[in-house]
Design goal:
The protein has 536 residues and is an alpha+beta fold. It is built from 20 helices and 14 strands. Helix 3 links the parallel strand 3 and strand 4.
């Protein structure tokens, strides 16, 4: 941090001059970028802002109005302050009009009662400024080394936040766009206090810039995202306004978190890695032509053309106790699934999707029956693989272009089934519908943004006033917009319930009799429930 006027007044060369603050005593915390010695009246045109001007006043004008203009010009250009040595031009004290002008413009004005070599002041201050700049450069280099290493190693969010807290000495937190905490490093503070009523507090902090300090909450907030898509916020808890180093630290950490999400990969066998790459390419539309995907699949011995395609997702019901154990089990499940496919003579693409899922793309003959193939695969896999798992299947599709939709269905079914497995051989999407789809998309920043846009005014209203209008809206929509039934379910009289609906319309600025508006609100509510259920 650059030195302040107060810091400079405490330096020995300045103290020997017997300094006295005659104006701007409340602005001694102003930072000084440089010290400039000048005896000319129009010195302001030589400055760029942030300079502390030293002068004996020998060349300053006699005309009082021009003296006032001199002070005003320094203030206008952004000078940090003015130090005047008495004895040459001004004897004993400065003219009252100069002091008044400095006070009016908020320009710190200091007099030196004794003759003081200005070169000693400039050398002392400039040495301190350069030392500070060198220290900041070393700190920046250190941050670069630390976070480059974290990026290369694929550090987890907890590890990144741990480094942020260690370097800054401040608590650090990562949240998603639904204001749910993904990781937190308390830096010795009480975690419960830091996270108390988190969603309400977080919604109240919405800086306009990507990295900004919110003085009310004391949070330094940096958006986290890559490729033009933000998915979270890094928050550094500050007891005072953060310095440049804290800002750089927050931005580097946010960049590392974004890169980590992009570069997450697991060690896999070459075959599983090749299969997984093809499946991922199909799901992410990486292949401009579906025939390219078919050609790549043929190259690994899996024909996709002219076949019925069934997407399958496998999930462990009880993952390993540690991350490494879970990854090892998932790798074993992928290998067992590939073996089971070979045993039942079903050539298939098999690879891991992420930390939780194994993907299987089954190409069946034109007259093949999906249910029979899925049953045979599941039974064989249960013989070959001991830990419990669920097998979820998407719809049967005829084209590679539709595989992504089938996989989304399978993922949705697996995510729901793994929470309450009932022992079925395999699971389908038949009864999950919209809730299942929203559960599948719960981590998608676009869905979180949609829910926030639809419900933010209502959620903020309830959070600030302890209201229950969100519950009233849910009851109304779940009752099919039947006001009489909804009032009964809400245990309210009809007049009281109708009054709450009118308040809802004012807060949300919408018409609750409009079908499209209610549909959007209902989807947003279901999405919000999915976010909160996942957090619990």
């Amino acid at each position: 941090m650059l030195p302040t006027i107060a810091d400079i007044l405490a330096l020995e060369p300045v103290r020997r001059g017997n300094p006295r603050v005659v104006a701007g005593a409340d602005r001694l915390d102003t930072r000084v970028r440089w010290v400039h010695v000048g005896e000319v009246t129009d010195i302001a045109q030589l400055l760029r802002g942030g300079e502390l001007v030293l002068t004996t006043g020998v060349a300053l004008p006699e005309d009082p109005r021009r003296l006032i203009d001199y002070v005003g010009a320094l203030a206008e250009v952004g000078a940090s302050g003015l130090i005047v040595e008495l004895g040459r031009r001004f004897i004993g004290e400065l003219p009252a009009m100069v002091v008044a002008a400095a006070e009016e413009h908020g320009l710190p004005l200091v007099t030196l009662a004794r003759e003081t070599p200005f070169v000693q002041i400039t050398e002392s201050v400039h040495a301190r400024i350069i030392d500070i700049q060198l220290e900041e450069l070393r700190a920046s280099e250190h941050l670069h080394e630390v976070f480059t290493e974290l990026s290369v190693e694929g550090a987890s969010p907890a590890e990144v936040l741990g480094q942020v807290a260690r370097i800054s000495g401040k608590p650090a937190l990562l949240e998603n766009l639904a204001h749910q905490v993904l990781a937190c490093e308390s830096a010795g503070r009480d975690t419960g206090t830091l996270l108390a009523t988190w969603e309400t507090r977080s919604r109240a902090v919405a800086p306009a810039e990507r990295t900004a300090y919110d003085a009310t909450s004391g949070w330094l907030v940096a958006m986290v995202g890559a490729r033009g898509q933000d998915w979270g916020r890094l928050i550094l808890f500050c007891d005072e306004r953060p310095g440049p180093r804290d800002i750089v630290l927050a931005e580097r950490a946010a960049t590392t978190l974004a890169l980590g999400r992009l570069l997450e990969r697991h060690q896999r066998s070459l075959e599983r890695q090749a299969h997984g790459s093809i499946i991922t390419g199909i799901l992410t539309h990486a292949y401009a032509d579906p025939e390219e995907a078919a050609a790549r699949a043929r190259a690994v011995g899996v024909p996709l053309t002219g076949r019925k395609l069934v997407s399958v997702v496998l999930r462990l019901t009880e993952p390993g106790g540690t991350t490494l154990d879970g990854q090892a089990q998932l790798g074993d499940l992928a290998e067992a699934a590939a073996g089971a496919c070979r045993d039942v003579r079903l050539p298939a693409l098999v690879g891991t999707l992420d930390d939780d899922r194994v993907a299987v793309l089954l190409p069946l003959p034109p007259r093949g029956v999906a249910e029979a193939a899925l049953t045979a695969l599941a039974e064989r896999l249960r013989i070959a693989f001991n830990p419990a798992f669920v097998l979820a299947a998407g719809s049967t599709v005829e084209s590679i272009k539709d595989v992504r939709r089938s996989f989304l269905e399978a993922e949705q079914v697996a995510d729901v089934a793994v929470r309450r497995p009932d022992g079925r051989v395999f699971y389908r999407l038949t009864d999950l519908r919209l809730r299942g789809l929203l559960h599948l998309l719960r981590d998608d920043a676009r869905l979180q943004t949609f829910a926030e846009r639809e419900l933010a005014p209502l959620l903020a209203h309830d959070a600030q006033r302890g209201g229950d209008l969100t519950r009233i809206l849910r009851v109304y929509l779940e009752a099919g917009r039947n006001k009489a039934v909804a009032a009964q379910r809400a245990h309210l009289s009809r007049p009281a319930f109708y009054d709450r609906l009118r308040r809802l319309e004012r807060i949300l600025d919408t018409d609750l009799d409009d079908v499209d508006s209610c549909l959007s609100l209902h989807v947003a509510l279901l999405a919000l429930e999915s976010f909160r259920r996942e957090l619990r």
